[in-house]
Each structure stands twice: as C-alpha cells, then as structure tokens.
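Protocol step 4 of 5: obtain the predicted structure for the target chain.
Materials: sequence only (see below). No template structures provided, no constraints applied. The aim of this step is simply to have a reference model before the mutagenesis design in step 5. Sequence pasted as it appears in the construct record:
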Amino acid sequence: MKKYWLAAAGVVAAVVIAAPSAVGASTETSPATRSAAQTKPAAPAEPAAARPAVPVKVAVPVKVAPAEAAVPAPDPVRTVRPGARVDAGQGYTVWLTREGKYWTGPDGYENFRSVVDGNIDRSQPGVSHQSEGDATGVFHSGLYYGTRKAGRVELTDAEGRKTAATLIALPGRPDWGVWYAHTGPAEGNGGSSPGVTLYDRTGKLLAELPGFDFPAGRG
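Step 4 output (structure tokens):
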C-alpha cells in the first residue's frame, strides 16, 4: 500500500511539470510567436465605396498683351532753321527767314516773297503760288498762311492729276510756311497753271487758289 502512494505521487508530479496550472501559467508570448505574428502579412482592407470624381478647377493664367504706346502721326511739315538752304530738287534751292520766302533756280537768280509787307492777310487761311520752268519741267512754290495746322498742299492740273507739295516752316511753327513741288514740262510758251489747295491735318479744306491759263515763267 505504501508503494502505491509513492507511485501515484510521482505521476501527479510529472503531470504538474508537464502541464502547468492554467491559473499560474504565464501569458507572455514567446519570441518565436511574436516573430511569426509580425511577419504575417496584414489582410487587405476592404475597398471603400467608389465615389464620383469631382472635377478640379485649375486656374489658367490669362495672357495680357502689353499696352502699345500711341504712335504719333508723322509731322507733315518739316522744320528748318532761318536761312538754312533746302535742296528743292532739279537745281532749285529754298530758304526762309522771318521776313518771308527766298528761292533760286538753275539760272542763279534770287527771288523773294514777303510775309510782312502787308500783301497777304494772315488773319485767315490762304495760299499763294509762283512758278517757273521750261520744256524740262516746272518748279512750283508758294506760301501757306493763316494757320498753324497745315497738313497738306496739293496741286491739280487741267487733266485732274494731283501733285502733293513739300511743306517747310521755321521753328516755333509760325502761322505761315512755304510749299514747293515739281510738275511736268510746260507746253510751248504757255499752259495751264494748276489749282492749289491747302488742307489741315484732318483733311479739311482751308483755302483754295483756282487754276488758270498762265504763261509758265517767273510768277
């Protein structure tokens, strides 16, 4: 009987050693178990419900063209110094002083047209005309006056052909200046003197000198 109790006690001790009590067993996870848990891939998350795409507004830079500087219209009148000789072409030279208009031709003779002798009325727009030439061509020149806004002087012959004149004036733009132009050769000893018109810079007619039959020569 004594041997039986010893054997039974040995069996109980073996069971205790092999299987510790649930109450006293440690809850700590072994290193091997932690490693396996850490390396195990996570289960894929459930996809979220599809949402409608929301359009994204992107600000587009607006290209603004640089402002263009206003370009002034070319001055139709050339400014010349008092006494400065201007080559008017075909052997003619023109110059101005405070007293009026001077010119010479191929013959070398000097001519003068005053603006201060009272022969022109500078209180209102007007135009004068002198001409000289021969079978090679006619040189036309004259005064325009009574305005500081001269834009164009134009010659019109008997056939309706128009010739634009060159305009010159002294510094400070006084109320007078000089125009000159060339036309074709005179016919024989006479011919028709073209009409002369003066316009302002807007194209408005300021003064007109009708054409007429007049011998070509010094006027």
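Step 4 remarks: DSSP finds two helices and 16 strands in the chain. The two ends are 174 Å apart (CA to CA).
Proceed to step 5.
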